[in-house]
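Troubleshooting: if your tokenizer reports a length mismatch, compare against these two reference records.
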Amino acid sequence: MRDENDTRRPEQDAARLGLVVVGEASALQSGDEQALDASEANIRDAVDELVDVPLTPRQEEVVERLAQAGGTLTAGLSGALAAQTGHPVEDVLEGAARSIVWQERLASEGAQGQDGSRPDDGRQDAGHPDSDRDRRDDRDQA
């Protein structure tokens, strides 16, 4: 359980949860019973570390099931992306984990430098640029 002297930022906690979900997806993809058991233990450890007060047994079970559901969804989407791109599913999941770590690192460094540059300029996720040369986001402009 987290104590009052913990100095982690919400971005770090979110990254930890994201990696837990990717770990669950990897365990599901592998089909290895030991990997699944280790992933479930990792989910319980992460939940325990991230809460400020003890959860009731029911709350803990709900959070664990949410993480497992997230892992199932991630495994399915990763499998579909792997099939569509012709890459091994392990590579897709590794890319997801790297993206989570990268986003947490960006958040800790700040979103923009003093010169106006973005730390992630030129970086691509899943084959799609984060921004184009005119510094517009990759999102639709509504």
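Reference record two:
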Amino acid sequence: MPEEIKPNVNEASTEDAKLAAEEIASGEAKAPSVDMEADYQAAQQFSVSEVDRTGKGEKAVQDATVPEYQMPEAEQKKTEAQPTGDPADFQAMAQDIGSSNQAVTNVSDDLVQEALKKGQSK
């Protein structure tokens, strides 16, 4: 259902807008009407391009998004900690895990002591 626009001369931001509002108020010009439903339906026609309505659109998307390089599948490595109670075993296990992820790990005694101090309640 069309809605009629009623301009206010005092709210016009430019001279052209003021002139148009005055002409509509005096009856010299017809007030524009807005049909929201018709505008919405027209917008739906533009929301999908012509190429997307055919099979070419899907192929174009696949061609554009295919990775340039093939990534190798990740392999899982199972690491099991033996309950020895020796901190050196834990450090060795951490280094094994760090090297398997190709991450740079540097666990020193000073770093471990600092972490222990920060973990203590005051």
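Descriptive notes for reference record two:
- Residues 47 and 53 are 11 Å apart (CA to CA).
- Residues 3-65 form one domain.
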